[in-house]
Amino acid sequence: MRFGKLLMGSLFLAWLSTGVADDARLAALQAADDERVAATLAADAKRLAEVLAEELHYAHSSGTVDTREQFIDTLASGRSKYEAIDYLERKFSFPAPGVALMTGRARVKVANAKGGMDAELSFLAVWREEQGRWRFLAWQSCRLPPPQ
User: Fold this and answer.
1) What is the pLDDT of residue 69?
2) Residue 65's domain spans which residues?
3) Confidence (pLDDT) at 14
4) How far apart, in whole angstroms, are the C-alpha atoms of residue 130 and residue 103?
């Protein structure tokens, strides 16, 4: 009987610590994404370089695909200016150790030489944990039709 209580107590503590670890991991990931959005809006090349993975694959809703260097250069040069990134929905999941998926919808407003974009997007993003920090690895989005 005593062994059973010890085992149940150990299982409860393991479950409790997993929940706390998941909460901390989720909070760190949300903070990293909040920093990515702030750095994007500010067109801050240094901050972007810290949060974007070197192998970044950024597929815009227009079909254009940028590397990390291209994405940072486009923002820092002013060729594109993100004026707003407002999440309508943002969810995270952890399919494998050190990997997180972020899905949702966002209202995004961008100005550029072609006039820009103001649209609601559906997106999938991939985050990877590197040396204890979350880094933004990939983005894929598509424009959603306006509500009817």
Assistant:
1) 98
2) 2-143
3) 41
4) 20
